[in-house]
Design brief:
This protein is mainly alpha-helical. It has one helix and no strands.
């Protein structure tokens, strides 16, 4: 796996994590 592919995978995971945190945050408001 190239470094760029690894970076893209990390960014995808971060996006999913942010979406999940955002949903939880909105539910608590």
């Amino acid at each position: 796996m190239t470094r760029i592919a690894l970076l893209q995978k990390v960014i995808e995971t971060l996006k999913q994590a942010m979406a999940l945190i955002g949903m939880v945050f909105v539910e608590r408001m």
